[in-house]
Amino acid sequence: MDDSSLRAVGWARSLPLNTGPKAARDWTREHLESLGWTRRHPRTVDDVLLTVSELVTNAHIHAHSTARLVMAWDGQCLHITVHDDDAALPTRREPSQDRPGGRGMFLVDALADEWEARPCPHGKSVTACFRPSAA
To answer: 9, 28, 31, 132 — which has fewest CB within 10 A?
Structure first.
């Protein structure tokens, strides 16, 4: 066996527009429980769940698209990716008293260890990575 191969576990779920962010959080929490994170890394779990909620909400509200949520754990980092059908990459905009929203990507930036957005054929993917917090 090649020791340089990467071992990972992952899940994927499609979340149509009529599916709220709670369904995405519940699905994510279930898989984090299977990894033992809810017991060992509860603060990181909270950060992951808020990030999932923000990214799925952005896909629904700004891209008017089904959100395709992919979670992958490679033993070092939990990768949360949301793909939507809009090619426009997210931008951080200053929050305003005049309109709701505008804080989502600030939250993702503050919560994730790192994140990136990439154009893809037929849309974009936004990936946030989380390393487990100290127990």
So the answer is: 9
